[in-house]
Amino acid sequence: MGVIQYIVDLGASVMLPIVIFILGLLLRQGIGKSLRSGITIGIGFVGISLVISLLTENLGAAAEAMAENFNLGLNVVDLGWPGTSPMAWASDLGLVAIPVAIAVNIVMLLLKLTRVVNVDIWNIWHMAFTGAIVQTATGNFYLGILGVVVHAVIAYKLGDMFGDVTDEYFGLEGISIPHGSSAYMGIFAAPIDDLIEKIPGLNKINITSEKIEQRLGVLGQPTIVGAILGFAIGMLARYPIGDSLQLAIQMAAVMVLMPMVVKLIMEGLIPISEAARELLDKHFKGSELKIGLDPALLLGDSQVIAASLVFVPLTILIAVIVPGNQVLPFGDLATIGFFIAMAVAVHKGNLFRTLISGSVIMFITIWISNQMISLQTMLGQNVGLVGSGERVSSLDQAGSPITYLLAKGITFEMGAGFFIILVLYVSAFVYTFVKYKKRTLYVEIEEFEGTETGESISSN
To answer: Which of these ranges, 122-136, 254-268, 394-408, has the smallest mean pLDDT?
Structure first.
């Protein structure tokens, strides 16, 4: 366990390159090629960390100042995944979750219940957190293990369900994104997309960053849009003009840098993923297996980045209107794109539809994270990461319907809110699963030139 703990402590930027290097050797890629793939991926993750730090240290601080300026009354700070994942790894279920999740993956592969071969060991922390919260709620270690197993099964199925989406929209052929908020919250996008499609007028609105650029010229370019949003957030935070201008340039940099660092990860993954698919196809003929990887890959899409910046102030606004909410979105504002990335893809890059489904996703996430304050605080105190008298929560994972429903369901803490979330989540999951089985979750559209308003006509 000491070796595993040491590797876990190194973080995703080292863990994944090690896994990819070993995988490359097993796939007979040679030491040089395997080493280059691993290091290239590591460089990409370091780049992503730098960009996220840029967001956290600058955009996050501005968002918190904005919330304070408008006296929003939100007194429990969202720790975000950087503050939550250490709780999962430090818990009793932390290291146990890794072999359990791998075992679940192997069993599902053998039973042909999934096509996902997960190599993203770092993000098993999501499953570990669910198990740790269930154990915290029940005091039972084995129920915590059950929580890990259930979350793992759902995650791998989500990887299957969004296979066409990652293949077609993101162009990640042979790769699956089974982990994190991108997967478990993406299921709300499909029913919302179909509902919008049935509403005359709304179903013709198609806004993308490309169309904004076409209409506005240079003012619609992603870098300019990022700068405008950064400046606006700075002014809402009541920053001096100079500081607001600095934030504008920093957000413009994010629009440029994020796709570049994600491209590095893809450069390292392509030879390994292709070799893995060839080998796996020989042993699992006709299965079309996919390599499960980090949702950070989705942040390279321009529509995802544009939507992410829009949702920074919008998420704080949503937090204000959620009934009884005390959680101030902060730590996860920098990675808000994770929550809405799959929705962007399901909506085929339509930012208008993403605005609607993303608002629903963030409303549900914030409401759940508010209900999980006591359990996450208790977990944090149990592992020595939260002091006495402090109260914490997080959007990423503490806001997960999977974690919430398991923890509250097993302990029979079932108020009206529990049943509302249960019905909404199960219904959205089943709806998305049915579309996945029918191969209609992602269908290419034929787009024609519309009127001057930029309308589009789609045929499924």
So the answer is: 254-268
CA 425 from chain center: how many Å? Answer: 17
Contact 176, 158 (CB under 8 A): no
Tokens 């609607």 sit on residue: 356
d(CA 264, CA 295): 15
Q: For a pLDDT cut of 70, what percent of the chain falls above it?
A: 83
At 397, the amino acid letter reads: Q
Taking the C-alpha atoms of residue 28 and residue 34, their distance in angstroms, rounded to an integer, is 9
| Token pair of 426 as six digits | 């199960």
Give percent above pLDDT 90 in the chain.
37
Q: What is the DSSP letter of 336?
A: T
Sheet strands side by side (includes 175-176): 116-118, 290-292, 175-176
Which neighbouring-strand residues pair with 118? 292
* 3-state DSSP percent of the chain in helix, strand and coil, to 5: 70, 5, 25
Of 110-114, 311-315, 438-442, the one with minimum mean pLDDT is: 311-315
Q: At what angle do helices 141-161 and 401-410 cross, to 10 degrees?
A: 150
421 with 369: CB under 8 angstroms? Answer: no
Q: What is d(CA 305, CA 46) in angstroms, rounded to the nearest whole number?
A: 18
What is the amino acid identity at position 28?
R
User: Which residues are registered as beta bridge partners of 290?
Assistant: 116
User: Contact, 441 vs 165, CB < 8 A?
Assistant: yes
Task: Find how far residue 95's CA is from the centre of its chain.
Answer: 22
Is residue 176 helix, strand or coil?
Answer: strand
* Radius of gyration of the chain, Cα coordinates, nearest whole angstrom: 21
pTM (2 d.p.): 0.79
- Give the mean model confidence (pLDDT) for residues 180-189: 93
Q: What is the mean pLDDT of the chain?
A: 83
Long-range CB contacts (within 8 A, 24+) of 456-459: 456/204, 456/206, 457/204
Q: Band of the pLDDT at 451, cuts 50, 70, 90? A: very low
The residue-averaged pLDDT of 140-168 equals 95
8 Å CB contact between 101 and 148: yes
CA dist 14 and 390 (Å) reads 32
CA distance 332 to 343: 17
